[in-house]
Structures are given as C-alpha cells and as structure tokens.
Amino acid sequence: MLEMILPLVGLTLAGASVISNDAVQTLGTFMVSNKKTEWWKLWLPTAAVLVITILYSWINYNGDISYGRLENIPYVTVQWYHALAPGVLLLLTRLGIPVSTTFLVLSAFASSVVFEKMLMKSMLGYAISAVFAYAFWMGLSKLLDEKKKVKKKQEQYWRVAQWCSTGFLWFTWLTHDLANIAVFAPRQMSGMYVSGVVVLLTSLLAFMFWERGGKIQEIVTNKSTTAYVRSATIIDGAYAFILLYLKEMNSIPMSTTWVFVGMLCGRELAIAMTYNREVKKVFPMIVKDFLKMLLGLAVSVIIILLVHKL
Predict the structure, then answer these.
(1) I need a labelling partner for 156 at 20 to 30 A (CA). Which of 115, 228, 249, 274 fits?
(2) Which domain holds residue 108?
(3) Residue 91 burial class via C-beta count within 10 angstroms: exposed 0-12, middle 13-18, buried 19 and up
C-alpha cells in the first residue's frame, strides 16, 4: 500500500514545488505586468499551454512527459526520503527563497556522476545567461529607454507580443522542468495517469495565479521596470532564447532557476551602468540572490548524502 501512496505524495509535492517555485521564472513578469487583469484570465491560456506541452511529450516520447530529460535517471521505487526533497523545497518556497527544484528534487534520484553533470551545466547556464543578458541590454539601451513607459497607442501591440513570448517561454521552460515532476512517476504513463497529472498541475497553477505568485514573486518585483509590459516581453523573449539554446546542448537536466537569476543579474548590472545608477547598489541584490541559490545547493548535497546513507 505504501509503495502506491509514496509516489503520489512525491508527485503532488513535486508538482506544488515546481509550480510555486520555478513558475515565477516564466510567469512572474507576466503576472506583474498584468496585475490589473483577473487571475483566471491569465490562468486559462497558460493552463492550455501546460496541457498541450504534457500531451505532446506523452504522445511523442512513448508515455514519458519529461521530453527525454530522465534518460540518465532510471525509475526507482519511491521511498519516504525521496518525497522529503520536494517537501523541503515547498517550505523554502513559502519563505521566498528561489532555490533550484532540479537540484533539490532530482538529487534524491540521481547518481553522484549525474548530479555533477547537472551542476556543471547549471553553472555554465548561469554564466551564459548573465553574460548574454549584460551584452543584450547594453546594446538594447542604444535603441530604447526602458525607463519610459510605452505610449498608449503602442501598448496593445506590446501586450499581444508579451502573451506570445510568455506562451513560448512557458512551453520551453516546461520541456526542462517537467522532469522534476515526472521523476516520481512511471516513465511510461497510462492515459488515466497522465490525466490525473494534468488535473493536478492545472489546479496548482490556478492557485499560483490566485495568490499572484506568493512571496517568491519578490525576486521579480524588486527588479527594474519588470512591471512594464515592454520590459516583461523582452525579458521573456530573452529567457526563452537562452533556455532553448541550453536545451539543445544536451539532455542533461539543469537548474532553470540558476539561468533565470543569472539573466536578471546581468540585466540589472547593464541597466545600472546605462542609466548612471550606482553599480555598488546592485551588487548586494546580486549577492543576495546568489547566496539563496547556494543555500538550495547546500540542501541538495545534504539530501544526496542522506539518500546514499539510507
């Protein structure tokens, strides 16, 4: 009986953790720049993309919803300590700490060799996104001033562009992070099983929109101009491009949280240098975000040691 319950508990906790913690990366700017829109109007299109993304992988990857990201992590019988990882992540999320679900969840299943590869790819992703964002926003500053709001007659076009870029980013991100949920499930899901997963995740997504991202949303709201529809559109587009590039690199899972925080740090530094803000005021924010990620990494290592010990 316990062998049937534990995978479902782990799957539920992982789903809640991934949606509440990592979704802020892709939907955070979308929520901030559309804060006057009713939550369910934001939820419906994102839920539709979620369902399509899951079903596409389920059909084309022989019942697997992880897009092949778990090929190096075979299915094992779920134990209580496996479910501990997403439980810890859910607690950290409620405290507003942007830790990596990939490290915290997959570390309980991955071998030390796979974990090392995940860590290296995540560190590389952080560096690539930070450098790309810095160069991109330095160049962008030559073309437009993000500090100025979009004119009323242009706002509707940027709004349409934002919904499109957010949808593409949401899909790209899901192809990475669905692995953090699917690791608790059979690699070949039945039609009934995948239907249950769809209902669970869309419900969790609805709650996330209803509470407007929760405390973890502060990582987006305290960055420059993220409430502007034009800036939100550009951020989403840039992040989607980076994720797509890293996805095509190899099938090793990585921390999208590290990539997202790296991009925001590079962007914030470029904006500070462009608009003559004091750069030294930006570094405490960058260091704070980085230390939060290191905290999540430390917890992941502890979980790996605990699992191997048990």
Answers:
(1) 274
(2) 2-309
(3) exposed
pLDDT: which is higher, 55 or 272 = 55
CA distance 299 to 278: 34
DSSP H helices, 22-147, are 23-33, 39-60, 80-94, 101-106, 112-140
pTM passes above 0.85: no
- The number of folded domains in the chain is 1
* Those residues with Cβ within 8 angstroms of residue 310's Cβ, 6 or more apart along the chain or in another chain: 79, 81
- pLDDT tens for each residue of 109-132: 877 778 788 889 989 999 999 999
The amino acid at residue 188 is Q
Q: What gap in Å lies between CA 143 and CA 138, rounded to an integer?
A: 10
Burial-class residue 3 by CB neighbours within 10 Å (0-12, 13-18, 19+).
Answer: exposed
Distance CA 125, CA 86 (A): 23
